[in-house]
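[09:14] KT: can someone run the structure on this one? pasting the chain below
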Amino acid sequence: MNDPADVRFFRALKQICSQSGDVDQSCREAIDRAVETGHSRDLLSARQSMDALDAALKDRLLQQAHLIMATDISAIWDALPMAADPSKRRPN
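[09:31] RB: done, structure tokens below
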């Protein structure tokens, strides 16, 4: 079973990489594949593609991805105990 944080992380990276001309096509494709399939093999491939990037670029992308994740209120709501019960609605 995949961790929902992995899915959110790679969705954030995909969003960031689509706005950056600095990320090579093979890395973008690996991230796209990870988002599409969620398969552990594809998640690993995307992580390895990120690891191969220039350190400064990688740090910048990770910082932006973590900012997106940290400000994603839906991720917070989904982690609450009531989120597991589909009959309950979010209080907002």
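[09:33] KT: thanks! The mean pLDDT is 85.
[09:34] RB: yep, looked fine to me
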